[in-house]
Amino acid sequence: MEESHFPTLNDIRFAAVRIKTFTHHTPILTCSAINEMAGCEIFFKCENFQKVGAFKARGAANAVMKLTDEQKSKGVATHSSGNHAAALARAATVAGIPSYIVMPSNAPEIKKKAVKGYGGEIIECEPNLQARETTLEAVVKRTGATFIPPYDFMDVIEGQATCALEFHEEQDDLEIIMAPVGGGGLLGGTALLTHYWDPEIEVIGAEPTGADDAYRSFKAGRLIPQTKPNTIADGLLTSLGVLNFEIIQKYVSDILLATDSQIIDAMRLIYERMKIIIEPSCAVPLAALLAKKERFKGKRVGIILSGGNVDLGKLPF
Question: Is 272 exposed, middle or buried (0-12, 13-18, 19+ CB in 10 A)?
Fold first, then answer.
């Protein structure tokens, strides 16, 4: 397999400029009570305050802005039931182009509402991967729109990497940086940027025990697809992407796991102590850190809080 051409540090810097008008520069928060519990110093990069409520705004905006004028005229398409759907719809609308979003019929109403609110056209399909892919194919054929995949796509990875760029620019003394891993766009982008920035900084992924394909793939040294995931962290159900696995194998030092009850405890802790709203997937790195405190003792740890799109009617506490 030939080595993929990954974005360079300069590419990621250009991406940060390219998406500037599309995104928020999110704050870094600390919490002394959580630091005391954890036995280390934690810096939280708050992508729950990002546009569309998640880091996904970055990758989608970057991918849209890199299209040619001819591609833009025909719009963009994707299949997603989550944050990527909303992020792509919004990026397209801001760029003044159409977006076609294939969503499973059982996608949460709140997500469908978000996509419509951001100006996306929803095409519903049966809730399985094959239906998603064939429906998307038909949409692309009919409209000529460009398919923007949610995570396994260079322009998306490059956009997600701008989060870690901002983080390191502002917090220049981190020893470890952590991000959750589902499809791997955020962890891949974070690992790539951190490697360029300072290869001495350890990059650690965090994953739920009920959806641990990245952990198993990482340990086995080959891609093991996700089967029947079962976890409250609904943003991390998807299989790790091929490109992201390549980056993770090279530049991530470890992937740690957290159980659903640990994830819920960490989520509640952030709500109570920091007074901010995060979704379950977002709590996974803190949950994994608290489960393995010895490993982080006395260190300066950066955690990317990936998003805050949680259905408040279904809070687990």
Answer: exposed
57-147: which CATH architecture?
3-Layer(aba) Sandwich (3.40)
pLDDT tens-digit series, residues 211-250: 999 999 999 999 999 888 999 998 898 899 999 999 999 9
> Pairing between strand 41-46 and 300-305?
parallel
Residue 36 has which token pair? 């005391």
Nearest CA to 30 out of 310, 290, 305, 317 is that of 305
9-54+153-314: which CATH number, 3.40.50.360, 3.40.50.12780, 2.30.40.10, 3.40.50.1100?
3.40.50.1100
What predicted TM-score, i.e. pTM, was given to this entire model? 0.95
pLDDT score, position 3: 55
Q: What confidence category does residue 66 fall into, taking pLDDT thresholds of 50, 70 and 90?
A: very high
- Lookup: tokens for 111: 């997500």
Single-letter amino acid code for the residue at 55: F
